[in-house]
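Interim report, section 4.2 (structural modelling).
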Amino acid sequence: MAVATTAIPATDTHRSVAAVASPQRVLYVIWALFWLIMVMVAVTEEWKDASIRWWEPLLWEGSSCFVASVWMLLQRRTKQRYSQYLDQPLRWFGAHVRWLPLIIVTFIGSIYAIRHGVYALTAERYEHWPWLYVFIYEAFKVVLFTGLWLGIIFGFDSFDQWQAQRRHLLELQKTLAEAQLSQLKAQLRPHFFFNALNTISALMHVDVERADRLLARLGDLLRASLQSNDQELTSLREELRTLELFAQVMQERFADRVSLTWNIDPRTLDRKIPVMLLQPLLENAFKHGVERSVGHVGITVGASLEGKDLVVAIGNTGSTLAADYRDGVGLGNCRERLNVIYGGAAKLEMISHPKGVTANVTLPESAA
Amino acid sequence: MMRVLIADDESPARDKLHRWLSEQGDVEVVSRAEDGLQAAAAIERLRPDVAFLDIQMPGLNGLEVAAQLEQDTAPLIVFVTAFDEHAVKAFDLNAVDYLLKPYDKDRLLRSLTRVRDRLGNADLRASAVTTARGQTNSSERLLVPEGERLQLIDSSSIDWLEADDNYVHVHTANRVYMLRRTLQDLLAQLGEQRFVRIHKSAAVSISAISSFTPLFKGDYEVLLRSGRTLRLSRRYKDALFARMGR
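Predicted structure of the assembly:
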């Protein structure tokens, strides 16, 4: 335990330690040690008694160990089913204790069947106390040890889950920080920034209102990206607001060459979406559609519901995906975040069609 | 009168430059190009004295446009850029004129003063083209006229180049393009690695050569893979054979 705890702060070290000593493995080692002690105690206890042969205590404890281990393995196999109750200890223990009557009956039945069987093979009789006494005595032992081991298992599994949650949280924070950083970089990307400033300086002489508006938009956009936001998810409404600021600045620069269409289903506005997921996609549409192609370019931002999934599509005309297309840094980050937040339930596809390219994001109703 | 071309893909940026240039008594804006190909075509057609080329343009960027121009006849180029660290370093190194966006009127006027001083200096005009060639892969592609328009062809598709007065005929497997350039300038752009002179008015792509046949007086006949035969003058024979490793 101590090893694992000290290893938590650094995820990498933690992983390497986990490979050597996963909680599961430690649990099995303790289980083996426990039975080793039980066997040794039994053997030394009966040592002086000449009427008991050396293999008899081994058989008694061995049969108990075998049947108990079968139950232990069964519990380990099905632990996923109960892991959801780990933060409600009473429910967790309750769900396990329900099995107790069956455990008691099978345990006692099996160990005595084994013992009688082995004794019969040596042509001897296994003598023990009357059945009622045996049953009460063994049942008491089963309850005691099951309780003890449930406690230990609960401890291990809780620790395991806590670690997993912590790891997940760290990953979430990491990808959010990366997204924020890359968005900030995009906003402060020299080309974007200086070009916008130049557009303002050009507009000032002919259309003060428009120049003023563009200056305000640029300010809003910088403010939005400088705001530190610790929330991983935001509403689509909020996300679209920032997206619109960016689009407005770009549209002022290329007013004569680009047209923007927003197709937003109002039912999607309150759906949750990872913060700043969409901006890199819109940036790509401008970068590949407008800045690299001659002539008019149409950019479409659409949001709709497909069943329970939220589908956001950002497309541009005027460019197609190259045959050897590979994700850029921005898109790679988007994919990684979706993976961390939705655990594979979300999709990001780049679709090439005769008119252009569309980035399609499909998000399930809730995060993993 | 100073005849000026403006090339920028953003209309507010074009307007701004146009307005301030028009205020100058000695400047006439002869063309406003919206992308690189338009700019190159307008320079070819109108032969302006000065070209303000935005670097970030679709199709062919400003540096690529400059790289495709003939050094001796190119206009004086002023590059305009929002941000391009590498190019700006190269401009500084070679004393090439440039304007950084956003610029104010003072900055532009200072730049115009420099332009007026330099207009007559052919070396300074050429240095912008040379610098641009160093910043782009101008040896890989060649801008050629295709009917009314311009288009880029891969240099690897060129078999040989034939000088003819003020023009160069660019021979590919199935086409001949006519460029108003000198052979020497074209070779400087395309690089001496791929092409080699065979006589005063012809150069051939090394990979297009099939074989040689000796003629009288030390001259040779060069057979191209396309089946065409050309004359190799003895003046260039040694250099060519050295290049071919014979």
